[in-house]
Amino acid sequence: MAAQVPLWRHYLQAVRSRAAARAQDFQRAEDVVLTVLERAHALDPRFLVDYSRDLGAFQFALRSSDEPSELEVPLGLDGDALLLEEPPSAEPAGGPACCRLGVPRGGAGLDRWTEDDVFSAAPESGAECRGHIVPGKVLSVLRDLLVAAIVHCKHQGLIAPGSLNASSLQEEELHLSLLVSSGWRTVRFNVVPVVRRRQRVPCPEGASLVTSFPAGGLKRVLGQGVDLVPASAQHWRVSTGHLLTRLLSALGTLPGYRLDGLSILNRVNHVSWRDNGHSAGLTFNHLKMVLLWASVLFPAPEDWADLEGAVYRLLVVLLCCLATRNLPHFLWPGRNLLRDSDLDLSALYQRVECFASQPEAFLRIHVTHLGRSPPPRIDNGIKALLQLPANNPAYWVTAYFDVLLDKFQVFNIQDKERIAAMKSIFQKTKTLGSEDC
Fold first, then answer.
1. Looking at the DSSP assignment, which residues form a beta bridge with residue 189?
2. In what order do the strands lie in the sheet with 100-104?
3. Distance between CA atoms of residues 230 and 131, nearest Å
4. 379: which residues sit within 8 A by CB, 6+ positions away?
5. Helix, coil or strand: residue 248
């Protein structure tokens, strides 16, 4: 296995070599959009420009795909002063429900948000509520502002001719899409109006959740509040995108190959599992969620000290999620990110398992890497073992995933207690293993 390490490092070097250029392209493209948003703010001060989010380029550099990047436009109001009206049928297990944002009677500083272009009066709402801020109307106003701002910026020479394509603005979506040319790359931004609230996201339970991040990092990130973004023409929903990206950034401050493993897997996903982006498949957000769970399930520094081992820690979690057809949201485990995804999960599982069994064939990027691949690391019975968490959630623990690592021949942990726990859970699965594995 040691002879294969250079192949993994060659692949990582190829991925890293693109990262700096991707980050620079993103920052140039982002500057174009911020210039437009500054003009939009001048036209209507209710829409603010957010310069504080510094993680867009960081995340874009980690990716190999050109998926849209979300760019938030905060609304100039105190989100905590608004009334959240959730439907009585909300199911908290799957995360926060959609809601309407009510403007309270006598609310200070909210008069600009009771104008007809963004507001719907609702006398029947009761004595406390004057009506609601309507996301569909907010999107319509922001769309018109962007069109006017783009015309102004082009006329004044503030943006280069041909650098921005706004043809997608007319599409009826819950975001406003802008295409920006930067170098030879085109970056798609989904501009989204957001209402910021200071409410905390409940911290997930479990000691390993805390120890998986830098000291105090988890609570500090989750204490930053939440964003409410359009869920429909009438309703808003909680968006945790920026919180998850900040957690990802926090993982990057720890020693080891966590983010490198994510970048490698994302590159393989883009090139091999999604046919260079021509086929539907896993998104970067799916893989980001896998890394967050893997960091919790494998909290020890030695889990991430080896590049190949780091990739396989993501792989065993991903394979389990595909086999059980359930990728839990990191903050709301009751929400399955694979549900209603319209993905062929069986075919996708086969592709991921093929890579996990013989990764060498996928890692060759140069003629000097050609050669015979080692034999498969596993046989066909691994899928039965991967199904166990679907029948018994108690298997969603480190010891079970250590068994999977051992099956892939990458369990290199010396901790005696962890080895004993792995052997114990293996005994529980021994009957299944002797029949299928």
1. 69, 178
2. 83-85, 100-104, 129-133, 119-121
3. 17
4. 437
5. helix
Which DSSP state fits 168? G
Give pLDDT tens digits for 173-229.
899 999 999 878 899 999 999 999 987 776 666 545 666 788 777 888 888 888 999
pLDDT of 215: 73
Indicate the SS3 state at residue 299: coil
Q: What whole-number distance in Å separates Cα of residue 174 and Cα of residue 139?
A: 8
Instruction: Please enumerate in sequence order all residues whose Cβ is within 8 A of that of 69, keeping only pairs 6 or more positions apart, or say none.
Output: 26, 56, 59, 60, 187, 188, 189, 190
Q: What single DSSP character describes residue 35? A: H
d(CA 425, CA 75): 51
The two structure tokens encoding residue 369: 């890497």
Relative to beta strand 185-197, strand 226-230 is antiparallel
CA–CA separation, 209 vs 222, rounded Å?
12
List of long-range contacts for 220-223, beta carbons under 8 Å, 24+ apart: 221/246, 221/247, 221/250, 222/331
Q: How many CB atoms lie within 10 A of CB 304?
A: 23
Q: Tell me the β-bridge partners of 238.
A: 228
Look at residues 340, 322, 339 and name the one whose alpha carbon lies nearest to residue 386.
322
CB 31 within 8 A of CB 37: no
Phi-psi region of 271 (alpha: psi -120 to 50; beta: other; left: phi over 0): alpha
Nearest to 194 by CA among 79, 351, 333: 79
Mean pLDDT of 345-362: 90
On the 0-12 / 13-18 / 19+ scale of CB atoms within 10 A, 193 is: buried
Assess contact for 326 and 386: CB atoms under 8 A: no
Q: How far apart are CA 15 and CA 274, in angstroms?
A: 17
The pLDDT of residue 371 is 56
Q: Which residue has the tokens 């081992």?
A: 309
Q: Which 3 state secondary structure label does DSSP give 378? A: coil
Whether 268 contacts 362, CB under 8 Å: yes
Per the listing, tokens 């929400």 go with: 335
| Dist. CA 313–CA 284, nearest whole Å | 17
CA 167/CA 199 separation, integer angstroms: 37
For 27, the token pair is 């920052």
